[in-house]
Amino acid sequence: MRLAAASPARTLARAALLWSAACAAALAQAPTLSPQALAGRQVFFDVRLSNPQGTSCASCHDARQGWAGNNRSKSGVANGSSPGAFTGRNSPGLAYVGFVPAFHIKKENGKAKAAGGLFWDGRANTLEEQARGPLFAKNEMNLADERELVFRLRSAPYAAELRAAFALADTATDAQWAQAGLSALGAFQRSPEVAPFSSKYDAMLRGEAKLSPAEARGLRLFADTKKGNCIACHAFTPKSKNPADHLFTDFTYDNLGLPRNRAIAATADPKQVDLGLCGPARDKPRGLANNVCGAFRVPSLRNAAQRPFYFHNGSCTDLAEVVRFYVERDTHPEKWYPKDAKGKVALFNDLPKQYLRNVNRDEVPYDRKRGQKPRLDDADIADVVAFIKTLDDGFKP
Predict the structure, then answer these.
(1) What CA–CA distance (Å, rounded) separates 292 from 387?
(2) Backbone dihedral region for residue 369 (phi beyond 0: left; psi -120 to 50: alpha; all else: beta)
(3) What is the pLDDT of residue 109?
(4) 30 in a structural domain
(5) What is the pLDDT of residue 30?
(6) Rounded-to-integer distance, Cα 272 and Cα 350, Å
(7) Most buried of 54, 99, 187, 236 (most Cβ within 10 A)?
(8) What is the CATH number of the domain that holds 338?
(9) Residue 51 sits in the same domain as residue 159
(10) Is 221 helix (H, G, I), strand (E, B) or coil?
(11) Which among 121, 129, 135 has a CA at the least distance from the CA of 44?
């Protein structure tokens, strides 16, 4: 006897149990949020909003991993909801994402420079616009269309809360329900739960804590334009006591010449390249020269020590390794890149040859030559890492 297939409603009901398990414990620890953000929190943790079900926004943006995480993937890019599906990039951390400005082009030293925007390539200007990307991408949450999203929102355990938070009438259209769901996600990501300013560094700004000697040395090296010079891109305002002036990013774009991540299946095809601002997920923005190809947005360093993978291609898994790459990329390239058929180190091997000149090689610490002493030694690297760890939220004085 052939059994009848489970109805969509019954399937969603079973998935609701998964949603409850994933969400209930975290809800108990949530700070005071607006009704819109509370509804958005439930949308964010809802494992029913994928096809097949089981993947939520939180699967790739886990608060315990700096709001990053890659859905249990070990390769450096995220697992999608469908078996065998992978995203094209490492999941960016969402901590303090509400502070990212819309994509824009500004003039710096007479040159056009890109800044802002969401995703690694800045192709979305608002959190509501950004949310559409993973929800409907085939290699991510894989919902067929807006109608499928709305069906699941209308039948969700939190449907009444979502309806009340956004004043949805009984006659609300599918478009209104979809917009409410997207707006809820935006409200949650702008909430104090995602941007709590609760790190040791924030406590220091408030006069409630002091950095250890190693952390203080790390901060000096971080800001020293002749040493780490991290402040060149991971900017903050030293004289300000306002935590919002200490996001540790200037939201601009940089080409680091990263090594190719061989753990990503797509790298088996040498023609598979990611040029950031120049695609494949977007077209190069008007007003920018081709020297931006291969550049990605500078992330905030808040909660960076908690992330399981670093950079857009997930090529590093350890924070000390990241700092070491910055200072040794040019002095000891053989540590980071493979050799080509002629036995020569293949520098910047995740870029086509025509874009190698776009790699940042002018700023400290990239201004060193092969064989020279790096700008930071092992002890310095340990101190910088100790400082960056003070940016992790959840500090208890």
Answers:
(1) 30
(2) beta
(3) 85
(4) yes
(5) 56
(6) 9
(7) 187
(8) 1.10.760.10
(9) yes
(10) helix
(11) 135
